[in-house]
Every structure is written in structure tokens, then in C-alpha cells.
Amino acid sequence: MGETANISENTPKKSWFKGLKAEFKKIIWADKESLIKQTAAVVAASVVLGIVISIVDIVVKYGVEFLIG
């Protein structure tokens, strides 16, 4: 039960870093054109969503003021 293998403390770290390096080699990075298009889509969606939330907020604000006053 109390037996331990004669494994150096550095071995798990080296194996982990080797695995990490192998996984990073598998990553397919987006090209510049695709990156620009996706970034523009995210920014546009964020702006549109921000506008929609602002409109809903204004409508609710005036609706509550109308009901109270």
C-alpha cells in the first residue's frame, strides 16, 4: 500500500508539457480574413443587442412611470 514507484518529480511535468505542446500543434488558427469577418460580426451583434436593450429599458422606464404616476 505504502509503496511508491521510483519516478522523478519532473517526469509528470515533462509529460504534461509534451502533451500541451502536442495539443497546441493540433490547433487550426483562423486566417486574417476570417478573423476580421468574425470580429466584425461580434461587434455588430453587440452593438445591435445594446441598442435593443436600451430601447427595452426606456420603454419599461416610461411604462413604470406611467403606471405609478
TrEMBL record:
<keyword id="KW-0653">Protein transport</keyword>
<keyword id="KW-0811">Translocation</keyword>
<dbReference type="InterPro" id="IPR005807">
    <property type="entry name" value="SecE_bac"/>
</dbReference>
<dbReference type="GO" id="GO:0009306">
    <property type="term" value="P:protein secretion"/>
</dbReference>
<keyword id="KW-1003">Cell membrane</keyword>
<dbReference type="Pfam" id="PF00584">
    <property type="entry name" value="SecE"/>
</dbReference>
<feature type="transmembrane region" description="Helical">
    <location>
        <begin position="39"/>
        <end position="60"/>
    </location>
</feature>
<dbReference type="InterPro" id="IPR001901">
    <property type="entry name" value="Translocase_SecE/Sec61-g"/>
</dbReference>
<dbReference type="GO" id="GO:0008320">
    <property type="term" value="F:protein transmembrane transporter activity"/>
</dbReference>
<comment type="subunit">
    <text>Component of the Sec protein translocase complex. Heterotrimer consisting of SecY, SecE and SecG subunits. The heterotrimers can form oligomers, although 1 heterotrimer is thought to be able to translocate proteins. Interacts with the ribosome. Interacts with SecDF, and other proteins may be involved. Interacts with SecA.</text>
</comment>
<protein>
    <recommendedName>
        <fullName>Protein translocase subunit SecE</fullName>
    </recommendedName>
</protein>
<dbReference type="GO" id="GO:0005886">
    <property type="term" value="C:plasma membrane"/>
</dbReference>
<keyword id="KW-0812">Transmembrane</keyword>
<keyword id="KW-0813">Transport</keyword>
<dbReference type="GO" id="GO:0006605">
    <property type="term" value="P:protein targeting"/>
</dbReference>
<dbReference type="GO" id="GO:0065002">
    <property type="term" value="P:intracellular protein transmembrane transport"/>
</dbReference>
<keyword id="KW-1133">Transmembrane helix</keyword>
<comment type="function">
    <text>Essential subunit of the Sec protein translocation channel SecYEG. Clamps together the 2 halves of SecY. May contact the channel plug during translocation.</text>
</comment>
<dbReference type="InterPro" id="IPR038379">
    <property type="entry name" value="SecE_sf"/>
</dbReference>
<keyword id="KW-0472">Membrane</keyword>
<dbReference type="GO" id="GO:0043952">
    <property type="term" value="P:protein transport by the Sec complex"/>
</dbReference>
<comment type="similarity">
    <text>Belongs to the SecE/SEC61-gamma family.</text>
</comment>
